[in-house]
Design a protein that fits this description.
The protein is α+β, with helices and mostly antiparallel strands. Helix content is about 50%, strand content about 15%. A three-stranded antiparallel beta sheet has the order 1-3-2.
């Protein structure tokens, strides 16, 4: 009787682990993440509202946005300085800068 119980427990363990593996494969197996951006043009959740050639100009525009209460980030890519804001603030930032 002990052999049947041990065999039953082993089979039950194998079934449970197989079911767990299948559930995990279903939940995490498909890699649906976006392809990484190696060009440096993807800023994640932030939206670009302006691009200027000098750091001084970027600082002036960023100061104008901050005075209006818009959080901004300046990113330099090559010779271009880009002003980035959250998408909810993008329309207001563009109106303020243009």
């Amino acid at each position: 009787m002990d052999a049947v119980t041990a065999l039953t427990q082993t089979l039950l363990l194998v079934v449970v682990l197989t079911a767990l593996a299948l559930v995990l494969r279903w939940a995490f197996g498909n890699d649906r993440r976006a392809v990484p951006d190696y060009t440096g043009e993807d800023f994640g959740l932030l939206s670009e509202v302006a691009a200027v050639p000098t750091g001084e100009a970027a600082d002036v525009l960023a100061g104008r946005l901050r005075e209006a209460g818009i959080r901004t980030t300046v990113v330099r890519r090559g010779d271009i300085h880009r002003l980035l804001v959250w998408p909810a603030d993008a329309a207001d930032a563009k109106l303020l800068l243009h």
